[in-house]
Design brief:
The chain has about 45 residues and is mainly alpha-helical. It has 2 helices and no strands.
């Protein structure tokens, strides 16, 4: 799964753009038989 690029200036809120990764992961989970880990609340911890 492709990841969006990080913003170039470091140490600011929202530089990691993890919300975009989440959005992509949810789209994958909706369609594909292979599931992607999103958040602990959604996916559940494996241990």
């Amino acid at each position: 799964m492709g990841k969006p690029k990080k913003r170039t200036s470091p140490r600011k809120t929202g530089t990691r753009r993890s919300h975009l990764v989440l959005k992509l992961a949810r789209q994958v989970n909706a369609k594909s038989p292979v599931k992607v880990k999103t958040t602990v609340r959604e996916t559940g911890k494996t241990a």
